[in-house]
Amino acid sequence: MAAVQAEPARRRAVAGAVGGVVAAFAGLAAAELAAAFVRPEAAPLTAVGGAVVDRTPAAVKEWAIRSFGTSDKLVLALGTVALLAVLAACAGILAVRHLRSGCALAAAVGVLGAAAALSRPGAGWRDALPSLAGGAVAAGALYLLATAVRRPRPAPGRPGGTWPMDRRGFGRLLAATLAASAVAGYAGRRLGAHGSAGATASRADLVLPPPAAPAPPVPAGADLRVPGVGPFLTPAPDFYRVDTALVVPRVDAGTWRLRIHGEGVSRPLTLSLPDLLARPLAERDITLCCVSNEVGGPYVGNARWLGVRLADLLREAGVRPPSRGGPADQLVARSVDGMTIGTPVETVMDGRDALLAVGMNGEPLPFAHGFPVRMVVPGLYGYVSACKWLTELRLTTFSAYDAYWVRRSWAQQAPVKTQSRIDAPRPFAKLAAGRVAVAGVAWAQHRGIVRVEVRADGGPWQEARLGDPDGVDTWRQWVWPWEAAPGEHTLEVRATDGRGDVQPQERRGTLPDGATGWHSVTVSVRA
To answer: Distance from the CA of 217 to the CA of which of 313, 400, 511, 523 falls in 20 to 30 A?
Structure first.
């Protein structure tokens, strides 16, 4: 008898869980539609994901980057959706038993989303509206669906008998909710795409002026063209991307402005993109790398950048470096999504080719890499120099302000460390005995690479052949012909920079200012 009585309860619980998930889908669709009238960053999944990123300990972020690479944002989004589905199912089951409590839980999730949206950098009160609207719709949909589950239906052929739930009514309501949600979600996506159409058109219409100081041609011998080693200049689609933006900002070049102000700025500037493009542009080949790059990691790329020299703009604004009596030692760059990056003023004004870049490999910057304007500073890790989607430059001091990553346990200043990487052969490759080209890249921006050495199985170091240099701010390719004998072997590489400093052997993680150590790969050679 107990089993017979429990069966309807189980069915109602399952129906409640399904109804909760569908109600959550309706809420997300409504929030997506509302976010189209506010801004994409206000959508609940984006806002909650961003808040999670902001509050995640640095060590956990590093683990995510190591484990998932550039798919870390997708994993976060899927995890957020999974958690929401669990909460929605719980709310649905609760609503079948206690209607108001279940609906209140659904609405509370919307309130949490609103709180997350308001916690994001640069958020205003309107950013809370999509999550609140989504929570209200989810609660309303759950009320209707749970009521259908709770309502008994007369059983045909059984005078006075009833089914424990209105299955037909629940099914019709479920289908209607899914259909309405799909329409709302599609409309939200279409409106969002329409809202970014101006930014897309502004990039398509942008014609970059020729550089006043063009980069020389890449030396013919810079690219060694060894199979397994990428091209000397990294194509934009293959260039690494590591940032906290769950939605890539799409900035309209026509409305973009850059403000330069702060301590020691005697002539504050507000510049449009035409203002910037009217200044002399410099074209330079510069390698960038991320501080999250482990020894042998992929987060490094080399491109030809076009932009305005940052030091010239700062001097135009009346800025002096600390070595010349300037009061500010930190330049805080702010992105349109609120990201802040602090760079030493002395570094960007010491004569190196620090740029406000507008072009990459002969084209306007891709949206994913900072269109319309980003910072590029050779010799510094990206987290202290490479602000994308730039909108503000503020002069201050390191003692007065900690930028985003510094507040999360990273060092205030982080010059790039000398690194080298074996790209060919790949780890655990199975090779034929005989001559094998061991090859890769090495980098030490603003110091240059003068030597790369390779060894097998802890033997003597052998000097590799270097590709022709393309200045001190780019990586250099290298190759070493190895006579591979049968067996298992370990290959190691180290580099020497332009100051004569040899890449250190000691392995250190990326926190707080970049990894150190020699890269190695193990391979098997068959007879």
So the answer is: 313
Q: Please report, for residues 301, 343, 415, 419, 459, the alpha-carbon distance to residue 482 in angstroms, rounded to integers and kept in the order given.
A: 26, 42, 33, 21, 12
Angle at alpha carbon of residue 229, lines to 223 and 234, rounded to 5°: 65
Contact by Cβ (8 Å): 66, 298: no
Residue ranges in the chain whose pLDDT is less than 50: 1-5, 7, 160-162
Length of the chain: 527
**DSSP assignments along 481-498, one per residue:** EEEEPSEEEEEEEEEEET
pLDDT at 53: 85
Show the DSSP H helices in 332-451 as ranges: 345-348
Determine what percent of the chain falls in helix, strand and coil, rounding each to the nearest 5: 40, 25, 35
> What was the pLDDT predicted at 193?
74
Residue with token string 């500037």: 269
pLDDT value, residue 294: 96
- Which DSSP category does 253 fall into? T
Does residue 519 contact residue 466 with C-beta atoms inside 8 Å? no
Q: In whole angstroms, what is the distance from residue 301 CA to residue 288 CA? A: 6
Burial class (CB in 10 A: 0-12, 13-18, 19+), 426: exposed
State how far Cα 274 lies from the chain centre.
28
Contact predicate 509/413, CB 8 Å: no
Is the Cβ–Cβ distance between 421 and 519 less than 8 Å? yes
- DSSP helix/strand/coil, 478: strand
State the pTM of this model. 0.89
Question: What are the pLDDT digits (tens) for 259-298?
Answer: 999 999 999 999 999 999 999 999 999 999 999 999 999 9
The Cα 146–Cα 90 span in angstroms is: 12
Please give the Cα distance from 113 to 129 (Å, whole number).
Answer: 10
Q: Are 418 and 501 in contact (CB under 8 A)?
A: yes
Closest CA to 32 of 50, 48, 46: 46
C-beta of residue 433 within 8 angstroms of C-beta of residue 485? yes
pLDDT tens-digit series, residues 447-494:
999 999 999 999 999 999 999 999 999 999 999 999 999 999 999 999
Give the whole-angstrom CA distance, residue 381 versus residue 514: 8
Question: Whole-angstrom Cα distance, residue 95 to residue 147?
Answer: 8
**Is residue 283 within 8 Å of residue 304, measured between CB atoms?**
yes
Give pLDDT, residue 281. Answer: 98
Q: Are 32 and 158 in contact (CB under 8 A)?
A: no
- 238 neighbors 301 (Cβ within 8 angstroms): yes
